[in-house]
Amino acid sequence: MRVKLCALLAAATVLGAATPGAVAQQPVILKVAIVQQIDSMNPFLAVFQSSTEIGRLMYDYLTAYAAEDQRVTEGLANRWEPSADRLTWTFTVPEGKKWSDGTPITARDVAFTYNLMMSNEVARTANGSFVTNFESVTATDDRTVVIRTKAPQVTMLALDIPIVPRHVWEKVTNIKDYANDQMPVVGSGPFVLSEHVAGQFIKLKANKQYWRGAAKYDELHFVYFQNSDAAVQALGKGEVDLVNRMAPAQFDSLDGKAGVTRNKAQGRRFTELLINPGARTRTGEPIGTGNPALADVRVRRAIAQGIDLDALVQRVSLGYAEKGAGLVPPVFGKYHWQPGEKELRKFDPAAANAALDAAGYPRKDGTRLTLRLVGRAGRAYDEQASEYLKRSMTEIGIALDVQLVSDNQLNEATTAATYDLAFSGWGTNVDPDFILGLHTCAQRPGADGKGGTTDAYFCDETYDKLYAQQLSEFDEGKRVEIVKQMQARFYDQVPAVVLAYDNALEAYRSDHFARFTTQPAQGGVIMAQHGVWGYYGAEPAQRAVQASGSRWPAFAIGGGVLVVLVLLTVVLSRRRKATAGERE
Q: Residue 529's Cα: distance from chain center in Å?
């Protein structure tokens, strides 16, 4: 019997070999739904959360944040040391790390990236605040990069800047117009961009050169949907594997659904209502078409006082959010600021009406002002919150003209300041410097909208002085207090109202992918992390079964492999008949 079995297996093997590709495994693909458009694949220009999320997967930073607890850990550099006066930082880029095309990664790539930003205004568009205080950056050899700063800079281990390959980018003559779409795009991260069709999909392949080791699956696809309803439906059908930023009702609808696991986490994002404060460029020239009345802080405060934040959280977010206040969400506890009793701006339509009267904006036929409110079409929050705000503002004599547009149109409006009110939102980093830096005078763009990324066109001397202080303050307790003072100043001047800190509402097909790495480990998020861990650590369900001790390997059913299974079935069936006395 043993001879016959061996002969049959040998025959099946020959048959399988005679059908080329029959046993070739199909690539394992993680498909992720996204509803936000991509503003740019150029890491020096990308600002949208969707774009920076993908950029993190393509390019490593100098340092990284650990998945478990978000502490600083190895990125492209594995060692760093400040001088006694904290004006000089020396980073070591070890041997062995490679770009996806096999070229060694060196300290010269780091120096090239930072020097490009320091010398090119357009290259500072997305992350310029990180290098504003740099005096010089020098690669003393392939392993060592030395950064000298004008003043001590506390964020030197939180430089969230994608490092680009010098041998590719030194050939780029125009950063502003460079799409970064020469496929495959050379990078250092766990995935390599291989195909991008705007408005349809982005495809990446696992980087076999990745210094941490290749991912456990082959390809990562981001599939674009017009709205989150369509994305959630696709998840339910198994057409995609991972969805985030769902509306509360959508998240609830997946409770108990077979093959789907939900994840709710305290988010690092906030949703805000921008109020155009009289936008100006970095050099002080007026820009945009904001209503002149909004340059009056009394009007902005009255608008804020006419918004019931508790009602928004309950009626629009269905409790899956926390009421907004400062720029740093509660998940980053020590830097989070809440107004005290004297600072608190309570919901009070009567007081808001009185303030508008005092500011010289009386009602005429029941209306004081007509303002444009711009938001994103297809985003449930914007659609629902705009209707709520429309009713609320009517109570204080302000009529709203709601305009829901595409991502890119919304970005164009807020960049060019062609709005009165606008929905926006940001993800906040582990270190608060980036989100704070968005509101400095220096972050306002030039006349063409490039060279800086401002959130709300806020420019305030008091705020700027506090920003400079926190940047050089290495005493954590003192820095925390300065950061809170900055948030209090922002709250008082109202260039925007932080409406809510949204919970991260995510779901994935656990019948396709068994595990995802969250950040932090306890109660953390899968997507929109401060790193790559959610995607990089994803484990296909099929391979998870094999790793847990599955007796048989997972075969693709086809060609010669099917013959193996059929022949084995015949043989084993005959053996059972011959030994029927054994207990089954």
A: 6
Q: What does the pLDDT look like over 124-142, one tens digit per residue?
A: 999 999 999 999 999 999 9
Q: CA 501 from chain center: how many Å?
A: 15
> Per residue in 75-119, pLDDT tens?
999 999 999 999 999 999 999 999 999 999 999 999 999 999 999
Q: Is 504 left (phi over 0), alpha (psi -120 to 50) or beta?
A: beta
Please report the DSSP string for 496-530 in residue order.
EEEEEEEPEEEEEETTTEEE---BSTTT-BSSS-S
Parallel/antiparallel/unpaired status of strands 513-515 and 539-540: antiparallel
pLDDT-derived band at 446 (thresholds 50, 70, 90) equals confident
Q: Which helix (H) or strand (E) holds 92?
A: strand 88-92
Return all residues near 391 (Cβ < 8 A) that are at least 6 apart.
none
Cβ atoms of residues 400 and 373 within 8 Å: yes
The per-residue pLDDT for range 187-222, each reduced to its tens digit, is 999 999 999 999 999 999 999 999 999 999 999 999
Copy the structure tokens of residue 122. Answer: 């357009």
The better pLDDT of the pair 575, 235 is held by 235
**What's the whole-number average pLDDT of the chain?**
90
Query: Residue 311 and residue 297: Cα distance in Å, rounded?
Result: 24
Nearest to residue 168, comparing CAs of 109, 106, 97? Answer: 109
For residue 479, give the H/E element and its range: helix 476-493
pLDDT band per the 50, 70, 90 thresholds, residue 546: low
Query: Would you state the pLDDT for residue 368?
Result: 98
Categorise residue 378: left if φ over 0, alpha if ψ from -120 to 50, beta otherwise: left
| Cβ atoms of residues 143 and 93 within 8 Å | yes
The strand ranges marked E within 276-327 are 321-323
**Owner of token pair 């800079």:** 153
Cα(288)–Cα(291) distance, integer angstroms? 9
Instruction: Report how far residue 338's alpha carbon sits from residue 273's, in angstroms, rounded to the nearest whole number.
Output: 18
Cβ neighbours for 61, distance < 8 A, ≥ 6 positions apart: 75, 76, 159, 160, 161, 162, 163
Q: How far apart are CA 247 and CA 231, in angstroms?
A: 11
Count Cα atoms within 13 angstroms, Cβ side, for 495: 23
pLDDT above 90 as % of the chain: 86
One-character DSSP codes across 192-217? EEEEEETTTEEEEEE-TT-TT---SS
Structure pTM?
0.86
Check: CB of residue 105 under 8 Å from CB of residue 145: no
CB distance 313 to 319 below 8 Å: yes
Mean predicted confidence (pLDDT) in 342-359: 97
**In terms of DSSP bridges, do strands 201-206 and 219-224 run parallel, antiparallel, or are they unpaired?**
antiparallel
Residues of the chain above pLDDT 70, percent: 88
How far apart (Å, rounded) are the C-alpha atoms in residues 442 and 436? Answer: 12
By CB atoms closer than 10 A (0-12, 13-18, 19+), residue 357 is middle
Cβ–Cβ under 8 Å, residues 138 and 476: no
pLDDT tens-digit map of 463-475: 999 999 999 999 9
Q: Regarding predicted confidence, which is higher, 559 or 120?
A: 120
Using an 8 Å Cβ cutoff, are 175 and 117 in contact?
Answer: no
Q: How far is CA 257 from CA 250, 303, 561, in A?
A: 12, 42, 34
